[in-house]
Design a protein that fits this description.
There is one protein chain. This protein has two domains: about 5-150, no CATH class; about 150-185. Helix content is about 20%, strand content about 20%. The protein is built from six helices and seven strands; from the N terminus they run H-H-E-H-H-E-E-H-E-E-H-E-E. The strands form two sheets. The protein has a five-stranded antiparallel β-sheet with strand order 1-3-2-4-5. A two-stranded antiparallel sheet has the order 6-7. A hairpin with a 6-residue loop joins strand 6 (about 150-155) and strand 7. The longest helix is centred in the C-terminal third of the chain and has 10 residues, at about 125-135. The protein is globular. It starts with 8 loop residues before the first helix and ends in a 26-residue tail after the last strand.
Length: about 190
């Protein structure tokens, strides 16, 4: 099913591509059942301002867990939170870690942003969904992932891993990994 058929205009209008299902450990998915999302949505500049004002200096010193939900909203949770809990077990347009800092004035900007989520394993091409969410919040950002993580599933042993330094070889069995993202064979187009 295409995202547009699910009422997700972002995919149709902005070409965000695919939604990502949770592919991590089943026991963590069970913690997020029932639709409870610990991720606080930031859909507007005002919602982000209210959220960031509630954070302590210690919290702001390290990155946060984030997802971009199917509505295009940035959802934020403490760093050690599971992405699946941040998203309430739902599909996401992207997931990772994000850090903020004060910009030159009284505002905020994105310091770091990655697609590091071993639960959703989003492809690096999920950046446009993140950029659109940050643009809606008026947050200056680096224009791409500051740490782009390449996830692949090994066609031989079935393990999911991270490609490091462009070396497309499975760390578990030494098989060649595909160049294209293949983590979830049931992914939405």
């Amino acid at each position: 099913m295409r995202l547009g058929e699910r009422g997700v205009a972002a995919e149709v209008e902005d070409g965000f591509g695919r939604a990502y299902r949770y592919v991590g450990p089943p026991e963590l998915r069970e913690l997020a059942t029932g639709g409870d999302r610990i991720g606080q949505p930031a859909r507007t500049e005002g919602e982000f301002a209210a959220w960031v004002d509630e954070r302590t200096a210690a919290e702001l010193a390290e990155p946060f867990t984030f997802v971009v939900d199917l509505g295009g909203a940035l959802r934020l949770a403490p760093r050690r939170s599971e992405h699946v809990a941040c998203a309430g077990g739902e599909l996401v347009l992207s997931a990772g870690e994000i850090g903020f800092r004060r910009s030159g004035g009284a505002g905020w900007e994105v310091r770091t942003v990655s697609n590091l989520s071993t639960g959703y394993c989003p492809d690096v091409v999920s950046w446009p969904a993140v950029a659109a969410a940050l643009d809606r919040l008026g947050l200056p950002h680096p224009g791409g992932f500051t740490q782009a993580v390449v996830f692949r599933r090994c066609p031989d042993c079935g393990q999911c891993g991270i490609v490091r330094e462009g070396h497309y070889v499975c760390v578990f069995c030494d098989a060649d990994l595909p160049e294209r993202w293949n983590v979830d064979d049931r992914v939405l187009p």
